[in-house]
Please model this.
Amino acid sequence: MSQDVSRAIGDYLSHLGVERGLADNTLRSYRRDLSRYLGFLSSRELTDPSAITELDISAFLGAAHRRRRPRAAQHGQRGSHDRGRARSAPLLVARTAVTADVTAAVKPPRPAARLPKALPLSDIEAILNAAGAPGTTLASRDRALLEMLYGTGARISEAVGLDIDDLDLQEGVVLLRGKGGKQRIVPLGSYALAALGDYLTVSRPALVSATTRTPAVFLNARGGRLSRQSAWTVLTKAADRAGIGTDVSPHTLRHSFATHLLDGGADVRVVQELLGHASVTTTQIYTLVTVEKLREIYATAHPRASR
Model:
């Protein structure tokens, strides 16, 4: 590799340490990445920085991404700072001898999509049973809210945005308004129907305010529409009472809804319609969860799954 490149690397690392004040650990990471990049260029007999092309840089980034991916799967996705550092080596070397930035059109590899977290059915049932303080007006509302979230896979914004006219308990369906104003009709299971029926006939009338008169299904203690933040709090308190050790959000119920349907044999396109996804590709990430589950069962049950 040319002396110009080695000098440029030294100058760059000095700049990071002195002018930008990066920590020693970060500098070591940069130095390691740069060394790998120089080795990569040497393996391709690229000794002139001006000869480096977009294809060379893309190949290096792809190799770096594949090397990091197993660790990312174990420890969570790497942050934007790490992805930026991985790109610093080709940027530096490409700019040492050419005025045109050959990295401008290079897009770093996209990080692998995180698999959604779904709770086992036993945890879901524990949360639903722990919803609300027994005997209170709000307990019925909280149970109905959580039963509907898990029973329909609704987003939290769709649930709190529901109006009375969006429910048809006779037919057992609910009209959900999703992103971009798109609407979909989703069936209500027997548990959600029972919880909603109890709430609407007993508890909601006690919460209705003569001053607000809102058509909202889910009301707060003052008779107004329940907010997203308050609905979130209902779930987190129920999860705490149920002793669930992991973080639980409204989206956790949505993920669990989709995963449990697929585990039960539902077609992915049916789940797509129920979730309101515009593309089946978005829904297919949930199939990865079920594949992982199948792999775990296979690994523990099949006599020749492992040595």
Remarks:
- The longest strand covers residues 173-177.
